[in-house]
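Propose amino acids for all 497 sites.
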């Protein structure tokens, strides 16, 4: 008899949607396991929204590159008919070290052709969902439950409780499963079951020590379409990542670290005050300061967190964690969604390799993906220094390495970070960056900065001691050293006598 498997996929983000596609496509193989897939998400189905609705539901721009695109391209027609043309191809990167020191890198020098573009996260979700609706909308093996939030996974009895979010008085629903995929993002409910069910499960959710806001601006005349920018000190003490958007716009994300005091102008609720601050300080390109001011005051502060886990599978719960549920990350290297999509592809490949034997696939998934997920979060956070002087040094070093590699490729290896968008495994890039010494150095510096801030914030170390650091250190360590030396000297002298 043909094997049947009920899989519940929690979360219709990029990871959950691509995993749904891969599993439903496995049913096309007549003799293999038959999958019944239930997809759950508290939000709306972006695949059923019209262009206006989707435009209103815009989220943030994402750089989609080799890891994500390769996963998508494994599904025939998905890229060509649903994804291609949704975003803007990256043509160059502009790096601004200071107001006057800027340089550009052409995408063709560091990327494979047709391998990188930016697109709104929700446009990707809409495209993946449209593919599902077109190809499996009437399939009896597929049930979508949008506007349903998963509340709890009962691993012992293999069912999941969900609650409708549509305001109806409908009661909580219990769904039986054979396997559950936690694709439910950073606050994963499926991951909670790992915490409850496994004493050896280690997990942490940490902030990335930053906060900021983002504005959408018209593409200036002197900036080519498809230009990605990183501008250090775009506003005093604030860095900016700028990604090209469709409709000749730029998505300007501005942020700083939590240990830096926010200028009162940027905290103002008066758009004119914010606009004046932009007019005085913004230097990356011409900007409509009034519009930026209006957008700024009409949004709250953003902050981003990251997640680390020591394994992504549970045989006991018959569950896997994919995407941000397993490895949410700071977006600096632009690989979070790429890795989420690659997780779905890795699961599909393992199901092929182990002929749909989930008992074998689950531990193998951790074996393959935990190193990629942890490399992702650590490369994202520990190759960017929270100390701006170190950050400038790192950018200059990377640029020198790039140039040396261009002219002496037999002598100098390429910068590993530039190889990731071309397809280098994150774990391999991590290995190379570790050997270059960069990660160890930045990890220490970043961790020290964060710890010092925490200690001051909660009052473990008082401001006085920190302020009079040298005097304090002399008193704390200098006096005992002097006293000990005096004792040794005195003993030595008495022996001589
Ligand atoms: C500002 C910013 C810029 C970024 N830039 C990039 C970039 O350039 N490149 C890149 O690759 N990545 C980038 N990322 C990261 C990327 O957005 C995420 O890594 C990606 O969206 C993760 O996909 P996911 O499907 O795992 O999770 P998510 O996108 O978080 O989706 C999770 C889904 O689960 C649903 N859900 C949550 N809780 C429940 C529940 N209890 N029950 C049911 N469903 C639930 C949510 O509604 C959501 O639809 C960026 C992120 C940010 C914030």
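Proposal:
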């Amino acid at each position: 008899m043909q094997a049947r498997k009920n899989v519940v996929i929690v979360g219709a983000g990029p990871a959950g949607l691509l995993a749904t596609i891969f599993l439903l496509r496995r049913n096309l193989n007549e003799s293999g396991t038959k999958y019944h897939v239930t997809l759950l998400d508290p939000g709306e189905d972006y695949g059923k929204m019209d262009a206006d609705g989707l435009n209103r539901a815009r989220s943030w721009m994402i750089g989609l590159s080799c890891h994500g695109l390769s996963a998508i391209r494994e599904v025939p027609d998905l890229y060509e008919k649903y994804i291609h043309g949704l975003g803007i191809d990256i043509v160059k990167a502009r790096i601004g070290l200071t107001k006057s020191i800027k340089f550009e890198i052409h995408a063709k020098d560091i990327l494979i052709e047709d391998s990188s573009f930016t697109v709104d996260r929700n446009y990707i979700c809409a495209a993946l969902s449209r593919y599902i609706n077109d190809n499996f909308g009437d399939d009896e093996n597929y049930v979508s439950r949008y506007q349903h939030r998963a509340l709890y996974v009962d691993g012992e009895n293999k069912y999941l409780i969900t609650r409708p979010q549509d305001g109806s008085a409908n009661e909580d629903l219990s769904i039986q499963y054979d396997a559950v995929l936690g694709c439910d993002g950073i606050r994963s409910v499926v991951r909670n079951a790992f915490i409850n069910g496994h004493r050896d499960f280690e997990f942490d959710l940490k902030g990335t020590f930053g906060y900021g806001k983002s504005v959408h601006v018209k593409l200036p005349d002197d900036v080519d379409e498809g230009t990605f920018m990183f501008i250090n000190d775009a506003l005093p003490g604030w860095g900016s990542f700028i990604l090209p958007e469709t409709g000749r716009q730029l998505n300007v994300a501005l942020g700083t670290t939590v240990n830096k005091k926010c200028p009162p102008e940027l905290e103002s609720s008066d758009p004119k005050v914010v606009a004046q601050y932009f007019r005085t300080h913004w230097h990356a390109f011409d900007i409509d300061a009034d519009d930026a001011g209006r957008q700024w005051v009409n949004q709250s502060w953003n902050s981003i967190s990251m997640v680390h886990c020591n394994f992504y599978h549970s045989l006991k719960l018959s569950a896997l964690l994919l995407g941000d549920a397993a490895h949410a990350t700071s977006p600096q290297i632009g690989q979070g969604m790429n890795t989420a999509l690659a997780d779905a592809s890795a699961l599909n490949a393992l199901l092929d390799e182990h002929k749909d034997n989930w008992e074998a696939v689950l531990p193998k998934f951790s074996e393959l993906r935990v190193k990629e997920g942890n490399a992702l979060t650590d490369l994202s956070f520990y190759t960017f220094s929270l100390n701006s002087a170190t950050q400038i040094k790192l950018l200059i070093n990377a640029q020198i390495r790039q140039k040396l590699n261009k002219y002496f490729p037999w002598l100098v290896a390429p910068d590993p970070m530039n190889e990731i968008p071309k397809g280098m495994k994150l774990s391999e890039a991590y290995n190379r960056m570790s050997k270059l010494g960069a990660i160890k150095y930045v990890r220490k510096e970043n961790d020290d900065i964060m710890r010092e801030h925490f200690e001051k914030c909660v009052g473990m170390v008082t401001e006085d001691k920190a302020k009079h650091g040298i005097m304090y250190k002399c008193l704390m360590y200098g006096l005992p050293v002097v006293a000990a030396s005096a004792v040794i000297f005195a003993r030595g002298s008495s022996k001589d006598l």
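Residues 469-496 form the longest helix (28 residues). The CA atoms of residues 306 and 328 lie 5 Å apart.
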